[in-house]
Specification:
The complex is a heterodimer.
Chain A (H helix, E strand, L loop, with lengths): L1 E5 L2 E3 L21 E3 L1 H15 L11 E8 L3 H11 L3 E6 L6 H15 L3 E5 L10 H9 L3 E11 L2 E8 L2 E8 L2 E5 L11 H7 L4 E5 L11 E7 L8 E2 L3 H10 L4
Parallel strand pairs in A: 1-4, 1-6, 4-5, 5-11, 6-10, 7-10
Antiparallel strand pairs in A: 2-3, 7-8, 8-9
Helix pairs in contact in A: 2-5, 3-4
Chain B lengths: L1 E5 L9 H13 L2 E8 L3 H8 L4 E8 L1 H4 L3 H11 L5 E5 L2 H13 L5 E4 L1 E4 L2 E6 L4 E7 L4 E5 L15 E5 L7 E7 L12 E5 L6 H15 L2 E4 L1 H5 L20 E5 L5 H4 L7 E6 L12 E4 L2 H12 L1
Parallel strand pairs in B: 1-2, 1-4, 2-3, 3-10, 4-9, 5-9, 12-13, 12-14, 14-15, 15-16
Antiparallel strand pairs in B: 6-7, 7-8
Helix pairs in contact in B: 4-5, 6-9
The chains are: A alpha/beta, B alpha/beta.
The complex binds flavin-adenine dinucleotide and adenosine monophosphate (AMP).
């Protein structure tokens, strides 16, 4: 089984985003960038499918291809995935920050070329917080989708996915090929070992341009402005529970 | 102009996220219809018909719709979308699951998690864990939008819209296998007036239930948790408050043994009054808390229970 994992380069999750003074966006100059954390979970699961870790049979995945759409530095993100155990990468270079619909259309073109049996991807990118691309890719391909996966099993040409939903969990069975988006509880991604980081340097990354795929990536949305949210200031420290209760009563919270 | 709201319901009643989404839909403008998808969900449709401002309620039923499977919901909504300028859903897990799929089928750029309607084509939405607010204008003729319900007031009751049956699609490739729902008599997390959340400090599922639940019961509160508490199995996934979990904005939010990471704050910083109990005086949660107690929850929570009487 061939697995495709789309990975996005985003602001590191430990960094608090700051809005630019001219309200055109978020200041990313000199900010630490990393692989979107959900995509790390997707890469980890793909590698486990290959290695036969946890409940997966060894060799469930035979090849893992990672693809990223973004600036040249997104090569580093792909390298990280290769060091975790993915086999090769594709970078579709774009300096523009593409909308989920455009990303989904490009990924569809990649799927048509690569013909994976499974697309494993993050449920959400932590910069745009869209939670959209996986569902959109599944729609464009007319494939089944299983979003917010907390458990994945592959057997008999089917993916059985336990999903985190409102109120609890739901289990679905989807025939392959399918799109699965991953949630936080699926696994804990590994840190790449030094030897694997060295090995990853020799793995292939194909450099592509958006134009190579001939899809319409024109923006539909115009960002009028990006502003800082109202700030909350720190309140007071109270000495004990009795004082807390009396304060809460005073402000009408109890 | 006409807007279709996809209802959030449990088969017999509609959740107040639906009322709040109707408010957002009315702000977008035009006639507002509500679609109830499910199976045996007539009572929910009747409940939706009572929401003030609703023109009519559409009821689509099928076996796959009972489990809100994405393909069936998408086929149903896409079949109806011709009659609408916008399709809107609350940003619940179900809404997040189906709306982008619907958008792609309609070749529309979806707009996730709006907190304000500026005009019929312009909306405000949080990005970067709520550390920035983006005002976006769409050029798509049809809009596909999810709504952060906590940012809108609920539409009132008092309507009497007609309920009309429409075809429910039932043809997805993915099949429902099973579900496990958490049973609780407490108020729903998203709608509760008070929320008590526990973090990693609780240390075990037993301690979480022994400390957080009685306090929640005393306050008539819903229970929430940090990601760390959910990951460790102290609380079910459905309790996670934050950027990638549930967003809450109750009148009172009590954080017990939660540090206040960016991702957690994203889900609760719009609460009216925030209380933090943490033994580390420098924990970031205190930067957003109205009232903080620096101390061990093991002594503070019992004292709080006593002080509440
Ligand atoms: C992609 C991604 C998405 C995420 N999404 C979310 C999300 O939606 N929601 C979320 O919550 N997190 C999320 N996180 C995780 C987040 O970054 C933090 O790791 C998490 O919120 C920490 O949980 P915590 O505060 O319970 O644990 P910790 O950060 O470990 O804090 C525990 C706190 O308890 C205090 N404490 C310890 N013992 C006691 C005691 N006896 N009495 C009182 N206080 C005590 C400590 O001082 C500390 O402040 C996400 C992370 C990533 C990478
Ligand atoms: N530019 C991109 N390049 C590669 N994958 C992406 C890109 N944008 C989004 N994705 C994938 O889509 C998932 C969901 O992203 P989003 O819908 O933007 O929240 C991410 O976790 C990635 O797996």
């Amino acid at each position: 089984m061939k697995v495709l994992v789309p990975v996005k380069r985003v602001i590191d999750y430990n960094v608090k985003a700051r809005v630019k003074a001219d309200q055109t966006g978020v200041d990313l100059a000199n900010v630490k960038m990393s692989m979107n954390p959900f995509d790390e979970i997707a890469v980890e699961e793909a590698v486990r499918l290959k290695e036969g870790k946890e409940h997966h049979a060894a060799g469930t995945a035979s090849e893992i291809v990672v693809v990223s759409i973004g600036v040249t530095q997104a090569q580093e993100t792909i390298r990280t995935a290769l060091a975790m155990g993915a086999d090769r990468g594709i970078l579709i270079q774009s300096d523009a920050d593409l909308e989920p619909l455009a990303v989904a259309k490009l990924l569809k073109a990649v799927v048509e070329e690569e013909k994976p049996d499974l697309v494993l991807m993050g449920k959400q990118s932590i910069d745009g917080d869209n939670n959209a691309v996986g569902q959109m890719l599944a729609a464009l391909l007319d494939w089944p989708q299983a979003t917010f996966a907390a458990k994945l099993e592959i057997a008999g040409g089917k993916a059985t996915v336990t999903r985190e939903v409102d109120g609890g969990v739901q289990t679905l069975s989807a025939p392959l090929p399918a799109v699965v988006t991953v949630d936080l509880r699926l696994n804990t991604p590994r840190y790449a070992s030094l030897p694997n980081i060295m090995k990853a340097k020799k793995k292939e990354i194909a450099m592509k341009a958006v134009a190579d795929y001939g899809v319409d990536v024109a923006p539909r949305l115009k960002v009028q402005k990006v502003t800082a949210p109202p700030t909350r200031s720190a309140g007071i420290k109270v000495a004990d529970a009795a004082e807390l209760v009396s304060k809460l009563k005073t402000v009408g919270a109890l | 102009m006409a807007v279709l709201v996809i209802a959030d319901h449990d088969g017999s009643t509609v959740r107040d996220t639906t009322h709040k989404t109707v408010t957002a839909a009315l702000a977008i403008g035009g006639d507002v219809d509500v679609l109830v998808v499910g199976q045996g969900s007539k009572a929910a449709a009747d409940a939706a018909a009572k929401i003030s401002g609703v023109r009519k309620v559409l009821l689509a039923e099928s076996g796959e719709l009972a489990h809100t499977l994405a393909e069936a919901v998408t086929a149903t909504v896409v079949g109806l979308a011709g009659g609408y300028d916008a399709v809107v859903s609350p940003a619940t897990m179900d809404g997040k699951n189906v709306m982008p799929r619907i958008a792609a089928k309609l070749d529309v750029a979806p707009i996730s998690d709006i907190i304000e309607v500026v005009s019929a084509d312009t909306y405000v939405r949080p990005i970067y864990a709520g550390n920035a607010l983006e005002t976006v204008q769409t050029s798509d003729a049809k809009k596909v939008i999810t709504v952060r319900a906590t940012s809108f007031a609920p539409a009132a009751e008092g309507g009497s819209a007609p309920v009309e049956a429409v075809a429910g699609q039932d043809a997805g490739k993915a099949a429902f296998v099973s579900e496990e729902m958490v049973k609780s008599d407490r108020p729903e997390l998203g709608a509760a007036k008070i929320v008590v959340s526990g973090g990693r400090a609780l240390g075990s599922a037993e301690e979480f239930s022994a400390v957080i639940e009685p306090l929640a019961d005393k306050l008539g509160a819903a229970v929430g948790a940090s990601r760390a508490a959910v990951d460790a199995g102290y609380a079910p996934n459905d309790y996670q408050v934050g950027q990638t979990g549930k967003v809450v904005a109750p009148g009172l939010y009590v954080a017990v043994g939660i540090s206040g990471a960016i991702q957690h704050l994203a889900g609760m910083k719009d609460s009216k009054v925030i209380v933090a109990i943490n033994k580390d005086a420098d924990a970031p949660i205190f930067q957003v808390a109205d009232f903080g107690i620096v101390g061990d929850y093991k002594t503070v929570v019992p004292e709080l229970m006593a002080a509440l009487g």
